[in-house]
Structures are given as C-alpha cells and as structure tokens.
Amino acid sequence: MTTVNDLKRALKSLENKPKFERQLEFAALLTDYFKKKGIKPIVVGGLSVEIYTRNDYHTHDIDFVSDGWHLFDHLLTQNLGFTRTERAWYHLDTEIAVEIPSNYLEGNEDRVYEIILPDGKNIYVIGVEDIIIHRLEGVAFSVQFPEEDEDYEWAYRMFLIHKEDMDIDYLIEQAKQKNIYYLIEKWWQETN
User: Which pLDDT does position 111 carry in this prediction?
Assistant: First the structure.
C-alpha cells in the first residue's frame, strides 16, 4: 500500500518524466493510497480522453470523480505541498494538477475500465462510451455548430479508435437518452 512518504518520494522522482507518464503514475499512487480508505477515484475529463486517444489529446490536470474530497485536500495540501485554488490542487515542482469536479460518475460504474500500469499499480477510468457521450453533451447545447467544436472531434476520434471494442448499443442508447443521437448517427455510415 502506498504511504504519504511513498507519495513524497514519488513527487521528487516524477519531476523529470514526460507529463502524461507523470500524471498516470501519480493518479495510480493516489488510487492505491485511497484504496485503504475505501475510496475508489475514477479518472474522468481530459486525462481519460488522453488515455483513450493514446496520448494524442493533451490535458493539464488529473480529474477524478471521487468521494473523500476533504481527505484529498488534507493529503495534497498538508502532506504533499500542493497549493489549492478554488477547484483544484497544483504542485509547482512537478506541474501536476488534481481536480475533483464531483463525487458522482456521469456514466455507468460497471463500465469503468481498470488500467494496470507497468509497476503493477492501477487506475480506474470512465468507460470510453461514457466519455464520448460526456464530450458530446458539452457541445450539443452550448455551441451553435457542435460538429465544428474540438470536443466533437475528440469524441469522434475516440469512437474511431475504439469502435471495434466498444458497446455500440450502449453508446446509441445513451446518446438517445441525452438527445444527442443526431451527433453520432452518421458515424456508422462514414466508417462502414
């Protein structure tokens, strides 16, 4: 199990690694640390898009959906030297930022994907179908031409990369429930 001292040592060793590797390793350490407290942080947001696009997308923070906000706050600020802003914590030396936008997963908990890193530690990531839906929801009703928005483009890229492995019926069902099916309807015609 990861301890506070392990996290402190890791922050020092992560400083010179590439950003994506830094984020994944730190997310895995936090996941392992909070496991003993009965908390299961799930990676969402930009880092999940970066994972599912195989590092084509780039994000600047680690977004988790998780219980235990106050425990994250205490660990990051009191023990690890992170600075807290309104919604996020930032570590200056490693340029790692952590945010917990919610303790509620906007997606299906049963579709959360576990990734095991080379060191044996793991992270949990929102299902690819759910992050596609989430990205499309973000533009469907907020911009005039959603198909010209970069979030639409990233959703489509994730679809293209993972279409053979994803649950298309679930994706369609969710898109219809969220009234955004019109955004993905043509994807099958374009890719067949």
Answer: 96
